[in-house]
Amino acid sequence: xxxxxxxxxxxxxxxxxxxxxxxxxxxxxxxxxxxxxxxxxxxxxxxxxxxxxxxxxxxxxxxxxxxxxxxxxxxxxxxxxxxxxxxxxxxxxxxxxxxxxxxxxxxxxxxxxxxxxxxxxxxxxxxxxxxxxxxxxxxxxxxxxxxxxxxxxxxxxxxxxxxxxxxxxxxxxxxxxxxxxxxxxxxxxxxxxxxxxxxxxxxxxxxxxxxxxxxxxxxxxxxxxxxxxxxxxxxxxxxxxxxxxxxxxxxxxxxxxxxxxxxxxxxxxxxxxxxxxxxxxxxxxxxxxxxxxxxxxxxxxxxxxxxxxxxxxxxxxxxxxxxxxxxxxxxxxxxxxxxxxxxxxxxxxxxxxxxxxxxxxxxxxxxxxxxxxxxxxxxxxxxxxxxxxxxxxxxxxxxxxxxxxxxxxxxxxxxxxxxxxxxxxxxxxxxxxxxxxxxxxxxxxxxxxxxxxxxxxxxxxxxxxxxxxxxxxxxxxxxxxx
Length: 482
Ligand code: NDP
What we know:
This protein is α/β, with parallel strands linked by helices. 39% of the residues lie in helices and 23% in strands. A 7-stranded mixed β-sheet has the order 15-18-19-14-13-20-21, sandwiched between helices. It has a 6-stranded mixed β-sheet with strand order 10-9-8-11-12-22, with helices on both faces. Strand 9, helix 6 and strand 10 form a beta-alpha-beta unit. Helix 3 packs across helix 4, helix 3 runs antiparallel to helix 6 and helix 9 crosses helix 10. The longest helix is centred in the first third of the chain and has 22 residues. The structure holds NADPH dihydro-nicotinamide-adenine-dinucleotide phosphate. The site of NADPH dihydro-nicotinamide-adenine-dinucleotide phosphate has 27 residues, from helix 7 and helix 8.
């Protein structure tokens, strides 16, 4: 089996070692072998990125538009093929894999258009005879560190704005999903771009990832992943005063009110809690339910969870694929045991499942009789596990929703406009959903959270300019005409 290589300073290069990538739906299926970059290669990638970035920044915006549009168009056109590969290595059902690749393409075409909208400000000076111009310039060389749960989309929503705003990229993808990373790299690097502008360095987070964030040649770091790793990256970044943007998990709550459409609430909860096997930073892991509808909602939720088909990601009809790895499955089973030991009632699921192929299958779990103080309701589980928390009224529901260290998304199911409006204004999260799932966002508007969920400027939409550019204020005195 050939070893897929890293892309460094304009060339495909083999690494110091390699890893094997296996299908979580069928561990006998080896997807490929992937080179692991060493520190010399990382240094070469960072060094080569600097001149390439300067050349790219000097390139006209129409050229940048063409490059991003071509990347996006190819991703969308090949979403069936690349989505299947993504599902094969990550484990999400095929439709979700295909949808993710298509969405990744949309990030590139959106930011292609953004290349043409690089508009500054002209400001009247407080001093007569002076003009003030405020322009955005590229931040420089950007390190992109992405997770396995959305291997192509997360990378795309970082790489596309980085390139659109004139930056170079050194990308370290998650080692659990290298095949999707190599395919995206092939699409990007076959474009007519300066050698060194885009680099792929595969390797473990603890080795090559850590070396990347400590590199003095990096101007900005965009990271998505866990809180502990994020805190470590922040400590490294501050040593070099490197600009930083991080998105790290959450403990999202969906509030179900007694005046809401309960069948809709059940549908939203099932999709939000178990889509992508619950491995989403926007997953609905806390269901905060009014006592008047608690029993009806919970009964329907459990019936729905039991009816969901868990199976091979590429099998027709699969609604929940395997979780990503043996380690993640074991952690999930441990968290189910933790919930029971904390006094929660496990209404269904939470067990390892056998399927015709050997994989990391787990039945979707619903806990009832939980309190918001329980550890299963405090920490991100990243699993097909959700908890029902019973509340007496709307005020209590809002208080529970907000009682968390995180703050990425929240949702409410209600028919009451006043409540929906109050919730929208008072939920302490970066995104608020009314009669919609906590997971699922658009690509042209900002995405991010509060508390431990996010750090630094927002991602996505026009707001991404805050991170991927630096502002220059120019003062110009016309002087006296000759
Ligand atoms: P991590 O935070 O460990 O990994 C995210 C990315 O960071 C990966 O590319 C990883 O590389 C890399 N990384 C790890 N350590 C370092 C380091 N010291 N310096 C630089 N980069 C590093 O998350 P996991 O993927 O292991 O998932 C663990 C938990 O994190 C999940 O259970 C979930 O709670 C949360 N998470 C949240 C996500 C979100 O969308 N907010 C996404 C993914 C995870 P590698 O994987 O190759 O080691």
